[in-house]
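Sanity check. The docking grid for 6-O-phosphono-beta-D-fructofuranose depends on where the pocket ends up, so I'm generating a full predicted complex first rather than guessing from homology. Inputs follow.
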Amino acid sequence: MNKIGVFTSGGDSPGMNAAVRAVVKSALHYNIEVIGIIDGFDGMIKGTFKKMNYDDVDNIIHLGGTILGSARSEAFRTKEGREKAFKNLSEHQIEGLIVIGGDGSFTGTKILNKEFDIPFIGLPGTIDNDLYGTEASIGYDTALNTIVKAVDQIRDTASSHHRIFFVEVMGRDAGFLALNSAIASGAESVLIPETITDIPALAEEIKTQNKGKRSSIIIVAEGDDAGGATEIVKKVKPHLEGYELRTTILGHTQRGGSPTYYDRALATRTGVEAVELLKDGKTNLMVGIAGDDIRLTSIAEAIEHDAKPDLAKEDLLKKLLTA
Ligand code: F6P
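Predicted complex below; grid placement will be based on this.
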């Protein structure tokens, strides 16, 4: 393999730059030329390509966002869009691709591979951690740390004012961010899409846990079956007369910031592995992590299966509440 393309796609996540750096540097190490595709599938269609040198990826390991830009492309969903994309890749003699993104990005690249037989390797890059086949995706750890820090700050004001705070976190339709940030931030309750939210029961739980306490923190996954934090507060309010309820939506603050040690190391290790796999003629694989070991999963499996958070962790939270 003489020339590969690398792109970031879907929602950005902290550590994507560290992954781009690892891909570019390790490919150049093997004398493979690297083309950075700007703005994901949109850039592939428009032909916004940039030859990547060592200089382009120096001093970016600590930067959030993605220097390559990202987009959610509608045009790529059409056959015409993908034909244009492949024409551009061929004109630049790009022989293989490394895609850094989530489910949708892998699905799009898999279709391109099926239609035009271009090899590709996927790196899981999303704060949601909703990809089957890896214990962590690039950006997840940083987002968790961002949430925990924000909740620490909310706790200060919550306890000063005896308030119940509903803090909404991202995660799309998965509860990984909510569940694990709830444990680490000392939240009293967590609401996730994977379990049914019972509003009257939630109100009772808040009353019990709040006895003798100055405040409570409830982490709400944005995809919860009962709605986001704003909707849940509306529903639970009639059951909680006399309590002061507040809502905080952390939003896109969770997607930004300098990546943690964990995300930088994950991105670097999986990025180098992706280049080695392409070089060795492999395709349609996602490079993930299990414990401290690299774990490979077929892209088909990564897309087909739903990743599920460990629900025992919800029971763990309940064991910390007043009897
Ligand atoms: O997939 C990452 C994510 O941040 C989700 O948690 C969230 O639901 C979504 O992207 C937000 O997307 P956008 O930035 O396009 O509004």
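Relevant for the grid: The mean pLDDT is 96.
Also worth noting: Residues 11, 102, 126-128, 170-172, 222, 255 surround 6-O-phosphono-beta-D-fructofuranose (CB under 6 Å).
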